[in-house]
Each structure stands twice: as structure tokens, then as C-alpha cells.
Amino acid sequence: MSGARAPAPARAPSRAPSRARAALAAAVPPFAVIVASILAWQGAVWAFRPGEYLLPSPVQVAEEAWDSRATLARAAWLTGLSAAGGFALAAFAGVLAGSVLAASRFLMRGLYPIATLLQMVPLVAIAPLLVVWCGYGWRTSVASAAIVSVFPVLASTLDGMRGTDRGLVELFGTLHAGRVQRWWKLELPWALPSIVTGLRVAAGLSVIGAIVGEFVGAFAGDASPVGIVILSALRENRTELVFAAVLTAAVVGFALFGLVSALGWVALRRWHASGG
Amino acid sequence: MPDAITVTGVRRAFDDGTVALDGATLSVERGSVAVLVGPSGCGKTTLLRILAGLDAPDAGTASVAPVAGEGAARVSIAFQEPRLLPWRNALRNVALPLELARVAKADRDARAHGMLSLVGLADAGRKLPGQLSGGMRMRVAIARALVTRPQVLLLDEPFGALDEITRHQLDDLVLRLRAELGMTVVLVTHAITEAAYMGDRVFVMAPSPGRVVRAFEPGFGMRDAALRASPRFAAVVADLTQSLAGAMLAAPEAGVRA
Amino acid sequence: MSILQRLAESCGIPGAVASARGVAAAVAVALLAACGEPGGETKPSAPAGAAPAPRAVRLQLNWMPEPEFGGIYAAQQDGLFAREGLAVEVIAGSAGTPTAQMTASGQVEFGIVGGDQVLTLREKGGDLVGLFAIFQTSPMGVMVRADAPWKSLQELWASDATVAMEAGLPFVRYLNQKHPGGKVRLVPTGTGLAAFEQGAVQAQQCFISAEPVQMELKGIPVRVFSLAEGGYDPYTVTVATGAAFLAKDRDACAAFVRALREGWARYLAEPAKYNPAIAKLNPGMTLAAMDVAARKQHDLVAPPGTGANEVGMMERARWETLARQLVELGTLKAVPPVIDDVFWNAP
To answer: How far is residue C31's CA from residue B140's CA, in Å, rounded to a whole number?
Structure first.
């Protein structure tokens, strides 16, 4: 081991526990809030007795979630796949479109307002059209997930790239870098922290998008996605299953968000956090 | 030795009406160190940027002659800031110009590593810029400028932000590299002692409009710590100081643009 | 969910809105109840002796204004509710409006609910009581194009057709149970009739008197399989109230039902007199379609031989059959011990 790297192992043991402690400390407030909310929810059910058909207690929801665990797990898997697929499409298209817009002032002036406008179109309104275009099944959910999550990626890519350090752009000029080289080796990595932020937002949105797509276009059957489980539970007046399914969707969203955050952290930790 | 750089009657005015350069004329002998020194607004950085190809003169000519048998002169520039890519380690930052020129990885890594060794950072190749001191970052930037083996190295006040000891070390490094690599160096600075120490030839510039008012040869052969302490060095510094004071007087309203 | 609801409300495609709005509304109702809004409480009626001010009550529909609610609008238009001392506010709904929950919790005095919902919600503590069954024969059906190859629900169910039906509705379970091993693929109805028109779905749940009429007027001939004929015949469109309200205000309920009976008698006799007002409230269905629908539904509301005062009357045996069917389907845990609590035929 070379001299320069020698200090690393000596520092590692002292840093690892403190990092773990910091992570634990960061987890305490949200955990406390969750526990408090569940207790308040249970308390409200005891105090006001709204009736199971209106507001099931957390215990009833937990029981239902356990009884329907196979259904919910399959639903989470199917919806997660659609959301992840839509997210991947949105990530690819958003970074590409953001890059193109960032590369041309003309295109940006012409297209960015339109992109902003597209974002305002309520997904619920165009979801039926998606069924017409993509047909029933996973394609509609994927498309729907992609549509809601593409804009944050596009906007964050555009923002990040437009903020590229002028000095570095000049440096690339003196080094006779080509346009693609400048994009791939300078603008894209420069924009990465901003893009990761956009991707994290998109990850959460993609689950909502997938479910909206499922509301109009998913197949119901032995293996139904979360959107269908929610619809069907509503029709059956199984409020506790509705709650369990909504919580399942939240878990899927959180998992995607966490995955993207973790990947982003791995990609950025070396230079972004070090303040380079 | 023939001239590597020839500047004749260069004029450069900006859109806001500032005349950064007017009638700037100078020539730099191949293999020598030329220093452009002057107050803010005298156009020294503008002149350097024109030589680097980052700017173009409105009138006059500025040319960098290639060495015999080569098409175009290889010119490198190091800026006031290191301008390193924060996500690349030192080695990969140094290798960047080769990478952009599509040199094979093994080759460019070897050359980048060699250049890092030359600037005294053989062990820091895997460190990110954020983990390096200011002086070390500047060394990386110099290594990056040199990795393409330029015939002309342009330095735009590269060490202005560093402490004096570090600056002296880097000045000596540049002189040593000039000797080892056999290149022409143009250094822009506003520090009189640095100009006196570094320059085979010192061009004193004056503002409004920016131009060369005096060309001056300190005539030091060997530079070392002893030189800095010697009376003849002090005499040159005093002489330069006087020239600069004259240049400043010529332009009371100077200082808009370097 | 409130975002979904807002999105849903901001757009004008009712079919698409329904699902999202249903989720949002159900949660909203739940939250309202959880916040301690006194459910089931209504303002005390006017003190005896004072001039009888009209009693304000609300009727929540579960769909847009259409001929299936014709008698209600007729009673409104002819002042029959007012004659009974009631000021009725009729609130239009959509496929996702949680009318059962709203009615059981007392947010509205009366609501249009499915007969199956009366039973399932009672099992979860939502004490609904059926007051008036608009259709004596369930108008539920499944429509296919006239040239479709299937001659029966059984044939359809054995095919791999794409069928727009709301999963979770008891009749879907009924069909699955009756025709086991079916290969049909069920999809939501959120696209309205567009998917059926386009051919993306080959069969669609419908009211015999509504969607097929719209298709035929658009020049798309269809055939309809009746679920009632297939053996599942609940009181599909039932005016219900909460048990608490009925116990406290039996007179108001009786007055309401009397006005409904008279309103339906008038609508059945002369629908064209009342349809223009309904059509004005629902731009999604033409007046012509409403006139045809009214004709088609006549015998479902009042089968031949129904006496003038028998419209809307419910039979104990029918409720019992439905409860047994729902238990078989797994939608209901047990047949209610006292069937007579489930409905009330006002004198």
C-alpha cells in the first residue's frame, strides 16, 4: 500500500460508527412521526368510532394487509415494474431532451415553454387516450408513469447543464473538444447533481403515474396491479384493503425513491459531497 | 533563436467601448520566458487570450509560429484558476487533453502520470481536486497544460491566489519545466518581483488604451533563492516599479478590464 | 389523493375522472368522518304549531342525470316533493361517488346505491336501509357488437375477449363463478365508451337502457346480454337512507317515497315531458338518446301488471336471494339475521 493511502484504514474505524450513528439519528424523527401518526389514527378510531366502512383502524388495515399479502405483493411487483419502466424511459428521454434544449438557445426558447405546458396537462385527462394509443396492459401504465416523470428530469437536466462553469467550457474550447465530447465529459457530469435531484422527484411521481394508468388501462385478474386492487376494493366497500393498497403504493414509491437516491449518492459522493 | 511569437499593432475594443489594446507590438524569442506586467486594464490578459486563440484582434496580427516541419503551433494555456473537473481525479484531469484528442488510454495515462511526476505530484494521481491544496491544484493544472507537450505555454496570473512560498516554488517549477521541455513561456502577472524573477524579457504595459510601453531584459541567467536576496535583483525590481508607476500615471482612470 | 381529485375535477372526461375521483372521494369521506363530524345528525324539524317550513334534504345520485333517475326529476319538476313538505336537493354523481358511505354517515339524507352495497356496507357498520328500488328488473347487462361471434355470456366468458368491467363489482364475481375457467381479460371502464367504439374492448358492462342506446344512435349496432336473465337480479338502483335517519324521521322518509312513486308514475307515462330538463343537466347524453332510453327502461321499472302504487316496492325474498348470492360469491360473510331491517316499503 502506498504512502498516500496509508491514513485511510486508520481513519475508517473511527468514521464508520459515527456515520452509522448519524444515519440512525436522521432516521429517528421520521420514525417518531410515523409512530405518532399511527397512534393518533388508532386513537381517533377509538374516540370517534367512525365505522369500519369509513375509516378502518391501523390494526384492521394491518390485518387486511397481512391477509391479502399475496395479492398486495403481486400488485406491488406489477406496479413497481410499470413505474420503473416508465421512470427509465423518462430518465432517458428527459436527459436527452434536456441536453438538446440546453445545447441550443433557439430550441430552448421554442420548446421549453411547450414542455412546461405539457406538464400542466392533467394526466387523468389523457390517460384514456393512452389506452387508445398503447392498448390495455402494461404499456399504458408505463407510458403514464413516463409522462408524469419526464418533466422533472428534463427541467433539472436543462438547469444543471445551463449552469455549466463558463471557465470549464472555455477550457474545453482551448482543448478543441467536439460538441459531443463537451456534452459527455463536461456538461453531463456537471449537471449530474441537478439531474439526480430531478430523478428522485421523478421516481416518486412514476408510481403515481403508473397507478393512474392502471385505473384506466390495466388488466384485472389473478395478478392485478395496485391501481386495480384499489378500484376493486373500492367497489367492494373494502376500505381497509383500499388503505392497505394505498400504503403498498407508498412503499413502492419509497423503494424507487430510495433506490434512485442510493444510486445518486454512490455516483456523487466522491466529489459532490467533498465540495470539489 | 527565431521568434516564436510575433504581435504587431494589435487593437482590440469591446462592445462597451473599452479599448483593451491598441497598437500592441512585441515579439518573443523561441525558448524564452516573456512576462507581460502591468496594472489592471492594460490588456495583458486580452493579449494572452488572443495568443491562445480565445479572442481575435480587431486590427493587427498576432501569430504563434510552428516549429520547423510542423503544421500548427501547439499552444497551451493555464488560467488564473485551476479549472479542474471536480469529479475527475488528478491523473484523469491531466489526461483530459489527450483523452479529447483520442489518445489511447494506456498511452495517455502513462503520459499524464509522467507529467504529474514532473510537477511533483506522483503520488496524488488518484486524489480528487477537492482533496488537494490550492498549490497542488495549480500544479495539476500546469501538468494538464503540459501533457500535450506544447511549444508555447501561456500562463494567465496562474499563481496570484497562492501564498508567497508556494508561488515561489511554482515559479521555479515553471522555469525548470521550460528548460526540460524546451518551450516558450508567456506569463501574465501584476506582481513586479515575479516579473523580474521570471522574465528573460519583461514587457511593461500601460492602460487606456492597452499597449506595450517598455521592453526590458533583466539578464539573470540562473534563478534561485540567492538571486531573490541579491542587490541586483532589488535594482531590477526598483527599475520595473518605476516603469510601472509611469505606466499607471499615464492612465488615471485605468482599471476597468484586465 | 386530493391531487388526483383536483386533477380529475379539472378535466372534463367523466369516465376517466370516475376512478380517480372515487378513490379521492372515499378517502375524503373517511377523513371527514375521522375528524369527528357528527354523522347522522340533522337539524331538528320545525316545532309543532309553527308554519311548516319545507324540510331540506339531499339526494346524492351515483351517476349523471339520466332517465334512470327520471321519476326523481319528474317529482322535482312537478313540485311533488314540495307538496310533501320537502325541499330536495338532487346532487349529480359519477361512477366513483361513494354514495353508500355518504348516506350511511349522514352527509346526505338519501343516496342512490346498489342493492349489494346496502348489504355489504351494513356488515361493516354502515347501516343503510333500502327505501325505493327504481328497477324491478336489473338493467345491468353486457353489450357486444351485433356482429360479435358470441351468442351468450357463457360463450363470451370462454373467449379471450377484452371486457370493460369494474373488477370488484359482485356481478363480475358472479360471472366468473358461473362460467369458471373464463379467459376473458377484464379492464377498467375508465375510457368511457371510446374503447368499445374503437374496438379495443369487445364487450362492455352497461345499463340495458343507456349505453346500447348511445351506440345505436352512433350507428354501431349492438347486442346486449341481460344479467337479470342470467340469474343475477339485485335491486341495482336503490334509493337508500341511513338507519338512524329512518328511525328518527320515518315521516320524512315516507313523504319522500310517496313523492318518488308519484314522480315515477308520471315519468313512466310521459317521459318526453321531463327529459328536456334532464338533458339540460347532462350534456353527455342527447335528448334523443334519453327518449329512447326512457322507452327501453319502462318495463324494467314497471313490469307489465305493476300497479300504480307498486313502483319502487321491494320484496323480502329478492333481498334474501341477493344476500345468499353475495355470501356464495364471498362478498358477504353471512345473510343478515333480520332481512326486514335491510329495506322498508313506506306505506
So the answer is: 62
- Whether the CB-CB separation of C160 and C185 falls below 8 Å is answered with yes
On whether any CB of chain A is under 8 Å from the CB of B128, the answer is: yes
Region of residue A126 (left: phi > 0; alpha: psi -120 to 50; beta: else): alpha
Q: What is the CATH number of the domain that holds C248?
A: 3.40.190.10
Beta-sheet strand order (sheet of B19-29): B19-29, B3-13, B59-64
Whether residue A212 and residue C124 make contact (CB cut-off 8 A), yes or no, is no
Chains that touch C (3 or more CB pairs under 8 A): A
Q: Is A270 on the interface with B (CB under 8 A)?
A: yes
Chain B, 27 to 66: residues with Cβ < 8 Å from chain A are 52-54
pLDDT per residue over B168-203, tens digit each? Answer: 888 888 888 888 888 899 999 888 888 888 888 999
Q: Do chains B and C touch (3 or more CB pairs under 8 A)?
A: no
Question: Phi and psi for B206 in degrees, rounded to 5?
Answer: -125, 150
Other C-beta atoms within 10 Å of B13: how many? 15
Can you tell me the ipTM of this complex? 0.85
pLDDT at A17: 61
CA distance C268 to C96: 28
C201 and A136 in contact by Cβ < 8 A? yes
Instruction: Tell me which residues of chain C, numbers 129 to 168, contact chain A at a CB-CB cutoff of 8 Å.
Output: 162, 165-168
Instruction: Report how far residue B210's alpha carbon sits from residue C87's, in angstroms, rounded to the nearest whole number.
Output: 91
Domain count, chain C: 2
Which structural domain, as residue segments, surrounds residue C191? 140-226
* 3-class DSSP state of A236: coil
Of C120, C125, C187, the CB nearest to A51: C125
Interface of C with A in 315-344 (CB under 8 A): 331
Is C100 within 8 Å of chain A by CB?
yes
Render pLDDT for C127-145 as a digit per residue (tens, 0 to 9): 999 999 999 999 999 999 9
Probe site for chain A from C37, C121, C191 (most A CB atoms < 10 A):
C191
**Is A163 an interface residue toward B (CB < 8 Å)?**
no
Q: Which residues of C touch A44 (CB under 8 A)?
A: 34, 36
Amino acid at A119: Q
Residue C293 has pLDDT above 90, yes or no: yes
The verdict on C123 and C240 lying in the same domain is yes
The answer to whether residue A3 neighbours chain C at the CB level (below 8 Å) is: no
Out of A133-142, A267-276, C68-77, pick the least confident. A267-276
| C140-145 sheet: strands from edge to edge | C185-187, C162-164, C203-207, C140-145, C222-226
Q: Is residue C309 located within the same domain as residue C320?
A: yes
Domain end (from C226, C243, C261): C226
A231 vs A245: CA distance, rounded Å = 10
Task: Kindly list the domain boundaries of chain A, sorted by start residue.
Answer: 61-268
C205 and C284, same structural domain?
no
The CATH superfamily holding the domain A61-268 is MetI-like (1.10.3720.10)
Q: Are residues C277 and C250 in the same domain?
A: yes
Residues forming a β-bridge with C86:
C55
Report the half-sphere exposure of B232 (CA within 13 A, side-chain side). 8
Q: Do A3 and B123 touch (CB under 8 A)?
A: yes
